[in-house]
Amino acid sequence: MSALTALNEPGDDPADDSVGRHHEWDLVIAHAPMFAVTAWRYLDQLAVSMRPATVDVADNTLRCFARFLVVEHPDLVGFVDVRRTHVEGFKLFFVAHVTAAGKPPARNTIRQRFGMLRSFFDRIIEWDWDDAPMRIPIFSVDVPVADDPLPRFLDDVQAARLAAAAAAAAPFDRLVIELLSRTGMRVGELCTLERDAIVELNNAPWLRVPVGKLHNDRLIPLHPNAARLLADWIADHPPIDRLLLHHHGQPLNRHQVTRIVRRVAAGAGLGHVHPHQLRHTLATQAINRGMRLEAIATMLGHRSLRMTLTYARIANKTVADEYASASAKIDALYTATDPEQRLQQLAGEHRRMLANGWCNRPVATDCAYETICEGCGYYQTTIEFRPTLRAQADHAERNHQTDRAAIYNRLLDTLPADTG
C-alpha cells in the first residue's frame, strides 16, 4: 500500500463530512501524537462557540491534513514544524483526490477545507500555542474565491404547476409544499418546528420559526391555506416534541422533505426540484411584486440586507419592466420619421439652456444642485456667452472670490479664440 493510498482508505474521504471522528486519528497518534493533541485541543475550543456540524468539518479537515503530513513528511513532530512547502503539497494532494463517487472534490469543498485550515493556523498562532508555527503557512490566495451564482428558483408558471400538483397530492405532501412555498423556511427549520410553534397575533395565525442556520428565530405570518392544512393535519396527528409528525408518528426529517418535494415536482413535470428552491421562489415572487427588501429579510431570517440583495439580482419582472420603459423611449427616438422631431427629442432629453450655457444632463437624472451649474461636468457653454462669462470672472476677481473666478476662467479657456 502506497503512502497516498493509506490516506484514501474506504470511507476516509477528505471531502466527506460524515467521517472525521477522533477514533480515526489512529495513524496520526501512532507516528506523531502531537498533531492529534493540538487538533483535539483546538476542536474542544471550537465546540464552545460553533455548531456540531462545523466542528465535524474542522475535525475532518485537520485529520486529513495531519495524516497527509505523517505519511508524506514523517520527520515532522507537530504543527509547529509545518512550512509553506508542506501546505503546497497538501493542496495538490487534496484537489487531485477522487471521492467515493469517482469525482474530484467540488470547488466549494476545496474552499471550505482550505479556509478551515487557514483559520486553524491563524487562531493557534494568535493564541500563542506552543505547537503553533512562527508564521501562518497558508494564505488567503490559497482559498478559492467563492462562486456567486444566482439562486435557482421556479418562475411563476412553474410555481403554479407545482401548486396544482401539490393540491392533488397526498395531504401530508401538500402540507409540506404549502408550508415551504408560503413561508420560505429552510428544510431544517421546518423539521424542527416546536409543538407550540403556532401563535396568535392580532387574531391571525403566525408561525414561530426556531433558531436556525443564522442563530436567530422569527415569526412568519401563516397564509390561510397553509394554516388550514396545518390545523387539519395536527388534529389527526397531535404534536409531541415537534409540530409535524410523519405518518408513522415519527418527527419529520430533511430526507423525507426532499423526497416529498421531488415527488410532487415530478408529478408537475418539473424534473429535479430541491426544497431550498421554494425558498428562493418565494423571495423572487415577493420582490417582483414590490415587497420591500427589509420585509423580505425579516421573513427569511437574514442577518443583513446583503443576503437579501441576492434576490434583487433575479427580480426579473422589475428588470424587464424598467428595460421595456427605457426601450420604448429609445425606439421612439430611432423610429421618428421627421428629422426635426428627432432633433427636438434629443434636445428635450439631453440639452437644456441655462443663463450662461447649456446643461447636457439626461432628463431622467435628478440634479441635487441649483447654483453650481458652471462647475458641473454636464455643463457646456459656447462662444456667444463669452462676454457674460468674462464679466462673471472679473466680478469674482474684484471680490477676491478665487474659486469662483477659477471656474469662469476655466470655462473661458475652453472657448475657441476670438478671431473677429
Automatic annotation (TrEMBL):
InterPro entries: DNA_brk_join_enz, Integrase-like_cat_sf, Integrase_catalytic, Tyrosine_recombinase_XerCD. GO terms for biological process: DNA integration; DNA recombination. Keywords: DNA recombination. Residues 149-324 form the Tyr recombinase domain. It holds the Pfam family Phage_integrase. The keyword Cytoplasm does not apply. One of its GO terms (molecular function) is DNA binding. This is Unannotated protein. It comes from freshwater metagenome.
